[in-house]
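Input record, target 12 of the design panel.
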């Protein structure tokens, strides 16, 4: 809790303590002619405490501090009549308490007219409050200067009013009645203003001010009843309690409206969750209208190509964004560092809550930016994938060229050299030069070994069997050279793209190499299957297990090759950690794209 919050809490607690202490003192004093009942004390204390508690809530939730300040001031001025009566023996104190005892009513009117924003709506409200304030000051001066004893209890055993320099009860009574008449007229005027505003308002305006008219009517009834009771001298406990409830309902209504506004902000936060992946224009408008309870809300999106705002169907917005809107409507422009985004045509009642509109603006901006970033990311990933495919294709082309050069160049030269040596051996033996023949045969053997190594190298670079006989023949050649027995369950689909065919060949070749080198396996199985979902290939052995993508570049190379085709690779172990399965899958969509 911040220091400011602690200070505010201390003020609220002080006001609450004073209210309770005053109520207890007034009840215990029993100074009124008509005893102040326990139920009356409880109801009166409840009304005052409601202002203290609601002041704390308003400080925590309202955008403006003014409503909370008004509430806490009313709480301090909420003086029980019994407490004032208990101060009658003090002629310098009770007149002051009596003079300020009705100031809370003017402040309460101010609380109503600033509902729910904490700001005045127009000059009419200001004039009404000014008149009420002037009347309250005149009554206060009349109490201090003219009233010799409390008006309702002229025969009380009170200490004289030390400030009554021109005591005149009839004049004071006339001023007091005039003050009350003006107060009733002002209250009725405020009620009319609030009700008219509520009836003319659209759905959001009515929802925000949904309880205040009822509270005002109860409050007005309490004031009228109190005035009539003062004139006639009669009273009814039921109406008195209803008056206290009406008075207490005003701050409660205020914080209820603040709670409704906060709930709107919470729904805007939910909106950010729903639209975090980007903007669907129709969906965004419908959800925002539902969130803000404004069925007429419209969102117009900026189209740079048209240099205009358009709705979700591409229809341009009527009128200019900076022009006045129809009665009760307002526009809010949404902009980001990259430029214009949209404008929102909304109920003017929502303009009174700037933080709510800021939350809407932030939600839409984040939604648009997230959508734009998502598109850019997807485009970047597609470019990366395409570049990986091009790199692999270029590598395959280079492999084919090297294999062809070795086969047609170096390999043919070595084969010709081997034939020449064979002829030389035959000629040397015919001439009887056995020593030369033996040397030539040794050279021929070395040449044959080099030629075999060259052929193995050429197959490793790019097998000619793959080019000539397809994937099935190339897998058969791999199996024939494997030192580990291999079971083959291969179904090669027709029209397999060349890039996929080559990638699968090297995938299987690398897996068989790893089995032979590291697995210590006695058996291996190759499985290749094709279905509607795509192509799957797996190599399974019964070796010691322990394979890990992070432990070698060979397995990571497999992952990169398959990922470049839009596929995935998975590594799994058998029961007890023995045996390894390396499985790859290429989706059908990726195969179709490669064929295209």
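The sequence produced for target 12 reads:
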């Amino acid at each position: 809790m911040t220091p400011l919050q602690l200070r505010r809490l201390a003020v609220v607690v002080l006001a609450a303590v004073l209210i309770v202490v005053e109520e207890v003192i007034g009840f215990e004093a029993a100074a009124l002619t008509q005893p102040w009942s326990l139920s009356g004390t409880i109801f009166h204390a409840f009304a005052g405490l409601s202002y203290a508690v609601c002041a704390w809530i308003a400080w925590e939730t309202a955008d403006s501090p003014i409503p909370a300040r008004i509430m806490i001031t009313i709480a301090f001025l909420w003086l029980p009549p019994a407490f004032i009566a208990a101060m009658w023996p003090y002629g310098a104190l009770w007149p002051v308490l009596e003079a300020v005892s009705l100031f809370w009513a003017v402040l309460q009117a101010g609380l109503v007219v600033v509902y729910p924003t904490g700001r005045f709506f127009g000059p009419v409200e200001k004039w009404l409050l000014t008149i009420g304030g002037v009347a309250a000051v005149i009554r206060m001066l009349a109490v201090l200067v003219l009233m010799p004893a409390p008006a309702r209890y002229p025969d009380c055993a009170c200490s004289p009013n030390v400030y009554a320099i021109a005591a005149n009860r009839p004049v004071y009574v006339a001023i007091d009645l005039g003050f009350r008449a003006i107060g009733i007229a002002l209250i009725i005027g405020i009620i009319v203003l609030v009700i008219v505003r509520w009836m003319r308002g659209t759905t959001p305006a009515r929802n925000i001010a949904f309880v205040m008219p009822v509270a005002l009517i109860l409050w007005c009834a309490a004031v009228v009843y109190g005035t009539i009771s003062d004139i006639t001298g009669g009273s009814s406990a039921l109406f008195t309690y209803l008056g206290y409830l009406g008075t207490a309902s005003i701050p409660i209504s205020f914080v209820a409206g603040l709670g409704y506004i906060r709930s709107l902000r919470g729904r805007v936060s939910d909106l950010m969750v729903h639209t975090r992946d980007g903007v669907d224009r129709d969906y965004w408008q419908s959800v925002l209208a539902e969130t803000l309870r404004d069925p007429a809300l419209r969102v117009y999106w900026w189209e740079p190509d048209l240099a205009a705002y358009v709705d979700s169907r591409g229809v341009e917005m009527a009128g200019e964004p900076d022009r006045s809107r129809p009665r009760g409507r307002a526009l809010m422009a949404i902009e980001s560092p990259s430029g214009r985004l949209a404008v929102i045509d909304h109920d003017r009642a929502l303009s009174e809550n700037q933080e709510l509109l800021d939350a809407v603006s932030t939600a839409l901006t984040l939604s648009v930016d997230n959508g734009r970033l998502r598109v850019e990311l997807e485009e970047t990933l597609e470019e990366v994938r395409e570049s990986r495919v091009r790199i692999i294709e270029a590598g395959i082309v280079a492999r084919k060229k090297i294999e062809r050069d070795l086969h047609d160049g170096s390999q043919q030269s070595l084969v010709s050299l081997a034939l020449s040596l064979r002829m030389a051996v035959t000629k040397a033996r015919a001439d009887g030069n056995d020593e030369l023949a033996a040397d030539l045969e040794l050279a021929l053997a070395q040449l044959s070994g080099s030629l075999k190594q060259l052929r193995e190298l050429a197959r490793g670079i790019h097998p000619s069997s793959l080019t000539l006989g397809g994937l099935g023949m190339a897998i058969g050649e791999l199996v024939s050279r494997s030192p580990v027995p291999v079971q083959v369950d291969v179904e090669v689909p027709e029209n397999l793209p060349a890039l996929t065919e080559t990638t699968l060949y090297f995938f299987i070749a690398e897996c068989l190499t790893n089995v032979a080198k590291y697995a210590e396996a006695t058996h291996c199985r190759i499985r290749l299957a094709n279905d509607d979902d795509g192509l799957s290939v797996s190599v399974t052995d019964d070796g010691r297990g322990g394979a890990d993508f992070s432990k070698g570049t060979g397995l990571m190379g497999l992952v990169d090759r398959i990922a470049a085709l839009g596929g995935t690779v998975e590594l799994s172990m058998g029961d007890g950690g023995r045996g390894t399965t390396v499985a790859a899958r290429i989706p059908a969509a990726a195969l179709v794209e490669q064929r295209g």
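The longest helix spans residues 354-430.
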